[in-house]
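Whiteboard transcription, Tuesday session. T.W. wrote the structure tokens on the left side:
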């Protein structure tokens, strides 16, 4: 209940704006992240829409079921994030990747979360071709854990990137099969840190996940880059791109 400002009720009558100022909340309310959802299967689309609408911090601005309508909807709604299936009409091939590529040029401020059934490294590389900022690649099974999907949406909305751990594992396993791969020179600890890096985590998040100090993480990362012949990158996005591209170079 607002208090009566200085000057009593006469002051309120003379200056009604003072009461409005007193009644205003001390902190501005967070604006929900606006989402456009693209999925061609009706039941999946509606189920996912209803899940996302349970969150107060998210707003599903619109839904669509094919690539062309996705572009039209993005222009009309100007969302913060697009959540899209990887395959949908007209070609049912890699429309989610195509959307992310085109939006990189037309709407660079829009984040894109690609949902896929496939832990295929080539899809991830295509998604990252123009940069990994504001991009995420998640397997559809992650939808069962709404918190993981919401975390990915928030991350790309803020300019970050997320890659599904199973895709990262596939990249690492594929390259480790090569006897000449410099990955064979990495210690178990360095492999652990490398996987966390490829998931888009910063040094603090890696330290927390592996129960290390941030200083220790920095030293391990420096060692990884030396062994892999990669130059030091100052941002998490360039760092993730360099590592994942290197891991998948023989794909």
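and on the right, the sequence the group agreed on:
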């Amino acid at each position: 209940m607002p208090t009566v400002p200085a000057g009593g009720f006469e002051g309120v009558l003379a200056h009604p704006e003072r009461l409005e100022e007193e009644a205003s909340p001390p902190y501005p309310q967070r604006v929900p992240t606006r989402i456009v959802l693209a999925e061609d299967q009706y039941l999946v689309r509606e189920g996912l829409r209803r899940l996302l609408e349970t969150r107060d911090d998210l707003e599903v601005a619109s839904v669509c079921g094919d690539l062309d309508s996705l572009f039209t909807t993005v222009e009309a709604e100007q969302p913060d994030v697009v959540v899209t299936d990887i395959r949908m009409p007209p070609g049912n091939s890699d429309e989610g990747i195509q959307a992310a590529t085109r939006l990189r040029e037309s709407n660079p401020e829009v984040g894109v979360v690609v949902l896929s059934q496939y832990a295929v490294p080539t899809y991830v590389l295509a998604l990252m071709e123009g940069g990994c900022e504001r991009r995420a690649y998640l397997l559809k099974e992650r939808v069962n854990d709404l918190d993981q999907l919401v975390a990915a949406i928030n991350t790309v909305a803020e300019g970050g990137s997320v890659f599904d751990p199973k895709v990262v594992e596939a990249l690492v396993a594929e390259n480790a099969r090569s006897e000449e791969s410099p990955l064979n020179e990495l210690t178990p600890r360095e492999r652990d840190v490398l996987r966390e890096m490829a998931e888009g985590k910063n040094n603090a998040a890696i330290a927390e996940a592996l129960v290390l100090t941030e200083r220790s993480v920095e030293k391990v990362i420096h060692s990884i880059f030396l062994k892999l012949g990669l130059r030091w990158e100052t941002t998490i996005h360039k760092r993730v791109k360099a590592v994942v591209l290197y891991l998948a170079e023989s794909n």
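Someone added at the bottom: The chain is about 50% helix and 15% strand.
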